[in-house]
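INFO  loader      accepted 1 record
INFO  loader      residues=460
INFO  predictor   begin
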Amino acid sequence: MPVIALRPSKRIWGRKRGEPLPLQPTRPNVSFAHQLWPGDCLTLLLAGFVASVLTGNFVPRTNLSVLGTLVAMAGIIAVLLTSRAYEIQFPMAGTTSTYHAMRVLLWTVPSGGALWFVFEPRVETVVAVLCYGIIAIFGMTFNRVIVFPRVQAAAKSRVIVCGLNGDALSVAQRFSTVQDTMTPMIVGLLTPEAIENQPQRPRLGSWEDMQRLFSIGMFDEVVFSVPQSSPASLPLAATAVKHRIPFRFEPHERGSHFSPRDHSVDLTLEPPMGKVGKAIKRAIDLVGASVLLIVAAPLYLLIALMIKRDSHGPVLFAQKRVGLHGKLFTMYKFRTMTVKTLPYDFSPREGSDSRVTRAGRFLRRTSLDELPQLINVIRGEMSLVGPRPEMPFIVEQYGPLEDARHKVKPGMTGIWQTSRHRNNPIHENIHYDLFYVQNQSLILDLVILTRTAFLAFRGV
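INFO  predictor   done
INFO  writer      dumping tokens
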């Protein structure tokens, strides 16, 4: 994989001692088409075969159906190559790649289907186009669910550490001592003052240079080495949100949040979905939740028997959560913890937590404990896709940045649940929810739902 490292300039005239070195991206936009396009091609070939069979055009003695399938595949792959479907964009590489691929499919497949219908105006043609699109969407999503964990291991997220000199150096040093696929690559530091004798972790500028460096592709994510409860944390995070820069805090203080009710920072964050989009989303929620509730009825019975056999206590667990615009509602889940567990406490990070029952470990791993929330979706308190609703005692500590999560309806699943940080508390990875609020759309919902289905099937 091509890497362009930061190198000292041979010319030092005109640059004061301690100033940042001339900047070049440490990694340009890298295409991972060689790892993704074989699976995409197989998906489109399968979709073309099924479409040909449905319309009765698959005749082995002729090459018409084969030629049509190959032309459709070549056209879609060509558009995918010219879009951003094969680029890696941290920290939500799988989601963004699937989003761009789905956008391509949602305009190329209907366009090609309309052209096909002109020559063959039959009901079978419409059914074939629908099947082609469904197979293509699920196939490409599955391809990215399988491939991107390996891609992320090979191409680590590039981060810059932003904070005071000593704190930034400490966080960068800690990252450099850990070697695993989850540890990012430190590009450099943003500090108020110059740093001497740090060739491996060069100072790239001050805090004010964050947006400029992100715009030229210097890094994928910024790590703030200031306590999240400090007065400086909110302005830094607000700047990152304004310029759509993924961010997180290190080290994260368990239970800490931005300065409560500190509204000194102007933060305007509104979801882009209009009234028509919201109406369509609500219709999808009602139909989807109703169908799933009926189809999953036998599964509800099996899960109830499993819970009752494993431990004493009720099957369902009801808890107050904070929803749209801060309104409280009662959320339902299958009980996964012992009845002695405190009703309002931080969620378990690991399956080995003593509070979790044996049946609960399986339900939490497969996300089946979330199924009763379909009732909340039908009642309009939740959506199929959205930020996870938090408990009131956590929301009480929220500041204006975290309050932005409540500008959209909470959901059963979201970007965080399909990310590699899903085992960490959501309030430690708020940038996932802020990304959704800033980019809410029906296509993004479809991406998240399909990724959730595959990840739940794999039992991650």
